[in-house]
Amino acid sequence: MRFRVVKVSDLDAGLLARWKSLQSRDPALGSPFFAPEFTVAVGNARDDVEIALIEEGAAVVGILPFHCGLDRIGRAIGLHLSDFHGLIADPQLEIHVPDLLRACRLVAWDFDHLLANQTAFSRYHRVTETSPFADVSNGFESYVAAKKTSGTQIFSQCGTKERRLSRDVGPLRFDVDSHARQDFETVLKWKSAQYNVSGVDDVLAADWIRRTLQNLAACRSAELTGCVSMLYAGDKPVAGHLGIASQGAWHYWFPAYDRDFAKYSTGLSLLVQMLKSAGAGRPSVIDFGKGDQRYKEQLKTGDRVIASGSVELAGPLRFRRTVRRLIAGVPGSRELRDFVKRQVHGRVASPHK
């Protein structure tokens, strides 16, 4: 087994075809985040993307795209844009992960949405969580009936607000795949406003993220298709969603809505419309992504297990991180951490002075 590192510009037709072939062998890799188009879109927006190729003989048997910073710490491709990541390979492939890191000249590889069933990384898990999804492959009506039987009232509540919105503003219309640049910009504008109101960092302010999303919105392939969906009341756009889809899954990614219509829960109506259109020429599974929001719990039909953690080679970085993790579990850890930091840097005055 050999390891080789290439850049996005080195991905010729043969490598791209091999990537797609490896992805197709494992249903767990059906998410568009594992498609080569996702890595290419990110790599065309940033210059720190590298791709590890795992080779046996003349054949590429595994692929791991990652970001490599000046600190030589590898991070999952797409950083916080990525809701799933991991090794693109046959599920039975066995690798020695530290050897892979050394070949990539990395001191660590950090992950936070790794598929937990990738056993090569199991020993490096620190936390496992669930990422819910809704499967409507048996039809929307059957899905709704099952949810109502389990006690979910979200559809009746949503219907009441939709009727009120239609009466107050205009009849509802859903465009599942808008190609208008204006709709793309509208969704991002609403999402930025939502971040600002919520007091969290606006990830869309980063130029590379904007360029990546533009690249993805224009992508059309079996493995990854960008999709902007819009909900209208009359002629007024009231909610929208920017997502990516493959043949197997549609990822619920950047939902947003016009806050002037918040009382009508237009964001929820948009999601219900997406669920209604799933399976009708669209993927029958919608991945909601990690998170414990109430609507995800009410609408999900299952969960995927994902892991957070880090592979760290022996050295100063692993020592510092190990000490930091140990300190974090001690009462008064912040004060202890600051004390250790001062000790390490030799800036501690004698307690007698």
Structure in words:
By secondary structure, the chain is α+β, with helices and mostly antiparallel strands. The chain has 3 domains: 2-130 and 306-316, 3-Layer(aba) Sandwich (Aminopeptidase); 133-305, Gcn5-related N-acetyltransferase (GNAT) (Aminopeptidase, 3-Layer(aba) Sandwich); 317-353, no CATH class. The protein has helices at 13-24, 36-43, 97-103, 140-149, 154-168, 181-198, 207-217, 266-277, 294-299, 316-328, 333-344, and strands at residues 2-6, 49-56, 59-68, 73-76, 88-89, 108-115, 125-135, 172-178, 225-233, 236-245, 250-257, 285-287, 302-312. The radius of gyration is 23 Å and the shape is globular. The protein starts with a strand and ends in a 9-residue tail after the last helix. Mean pLDDT is 90; it is low at 344-353.
Search tags:
single chain, 353 residues, alpha+beta, Aminopeptidase, 3 domains, 11 helices, 13 strands, globular, disordered C terminus
List the helices and strands and how they pair.
Blueprint: E1 2-6, H1 13-24, H2 36-43, E2 49-56, E3 59-68, E4 73-76, E5 88-89, H3 97-103, E6 108-115, E7 125-135, H4 140-149, H5 154-168, E8 172-178, H6 181-198, H7 207-217, E9 225-233, E10 236-245, E11 250-257, H8 266-277, E12 285-287, H9 294-299, E13 302-312, H10 316-328, H11 333-344
